[in-house]
Amino acid sequence: MLVASGVPVLVMRGGAAKCAYFLAGDLPADPGELLDGLGVGRVAVAGCSEDPDADVDCLVVRGADGWVELLAGVGAFAVERDLVAARTGVVPVRVRMILEGDSRTATVYVPVRGGRAEYAGDTAISGVPGTGARVLIEFAHGADSVLLPTGRVVDDLGGVPATLIGNGAPVVVIPAAALGVSGYETPARLEYDERLRARLGTLRLKAGAMLGLGDVTDRDVPAICLVAPPVAGGGLCVRVVGQDRVDPSIGAFPAMSLAAAAGLLGSVAARARRPAGADVPRDVLRLEHPGGFLDVQAEVTGRAGAIRMGRSAIVSTARLLLTGLAFG
Fold first, then answer.
1. Torsion sign (Cα): 245, 247, 250, 253
2. Reduced to 3 states, what is the DSSP secondary structure of residue 208?
3. Which of 35, 54, 165, 320 would be a feasible disulfide site paired with 96, CB 3.0-4.6 Å?
4. In angstroms, rounded to a whole number, what is the distance separating the alpha carbons of residues 129 and 98?
5. What is the pLDDT of residues 102-136, one digit of tens each?
6. Are 287 and 238 a contacting pair, CB within 8 Å?
7. From its phi and psi, is residue 134 left (phi > 0), alpha (psi between -120 and 50) or beta?
8. Is residue 148 part of a domain?
9. What is the model's pTM?
10. CB 200 within 8 A of CB 189
11. What is the pLDDT of residues 222-268, one digit of tens each?
């Protein structure tokens, strides 16, 4: 369908992901050809939400695999398109992401100057050249979730110490050294070690049962986080092992669980954690991974049996790349 007058579009970078954002009310009744002709890997449509717990609804039309990264862009888009009231300061934008019939809610804290999103700043994120204004993506700790499903900060997995934790996602935190590796290996090197893979598979099955997940043979959770002291100025080094591969980075939800574990006195993660370098903000934990680093917040107080979970957030940036009209 030809859209003669064009449809307004903003191309934003949120995190390391580029996405084309449209206002829901601007699109024609049948936007298929318009969206297909953009040549952009990720496309999202946003508008004011009717949910009292959200300001903005965002439907990810294409590229939903990187939806957490897109949140930084959604927040800035909401400010640019006046979907939220914004003057100057840090503006919270409550976003409901709609994904394949499901929805996830997060609060995106957007720096604003003069009613427009602020993009200049000194925050660096891995995989993006230069720096930008800091955008926090905060996820609420679910009321029905249990931070320590076993009630213990450290469990014994057949002679291997482990912290089993659930905050963003259920993970099993194990010292890399306990499995005879350094924790600094490349993903390919770890995947090549068949003996290690077999042992990790056994540990994952045992941990899955202890986490109340049942038989996890054919499931993506829990992930195993092999941790070691940092080597590049961060706070903790990690290698994330899934069902049958080693992740080249670390996802947002495992990162928040790992950060929560690092805040628990005596946990496996806390034992490997070190003070970060002077260039790392004091309010974040910088996780070093094979592809770079990820800065995350997870506020934890108390001990096992009386733990209070505070903010869980990912540090990101956003940048406006292009504004114009799209034609189908």
1. negative
2. helix
3. 54
4. 30
5. 888 999 999 999 999 999 999 999 999 999 999 99
6. yes
7. beta
8. no
9. 0.93
10. no
11. 999 999 999 999 999 999 999 879 999 999 999 999 999 999 999 99
- Backbone phi and psi for residue 199, each to the nearest 5 degrees, phi listed first: -70, -40
Rg (CA), the chain: 21
Instruction: Report, in this order, helix, strand and coil percent for the chain, each rounded to 5.
Output: 20, 35, 45
What dihedral angle (degrees, nearest 10) is formed by the CA atoms of 69, 58, 19, 258? 10
Query: Do the Cβ atoms of 200 and 194 come closer than 8 Å?
Result: no
- Which run of H or of E encompasses 223? strand 223-228
The pLDDT of residue 306 is 63
CATH number of the domain bearing residue 97: 3.10.310.10
Structural domain harbouring 75: 7-141+316-326
Whether 210 contacts 226, CB under 8 Å = no
Dump pLDDT digits (tens) for 282-301: 999 999 999 999 999 988 87
Q: In 3-state terms, what secondary structure has residue 240?
A: strand
Hey, which residues does 47 pair with through a beta bridge? 57
The total domain count for the chain is 2
Q: Which of 119, 108, 33, 39 is nearest to 78 (CA)?
A: 108
Ordered alpha helix ranges (H), 56-116: 67-80
**Sign of the CA dihedral running 140, 300, 224, 316:** positive
Higher pLDDT residue, 322 or 145?
322
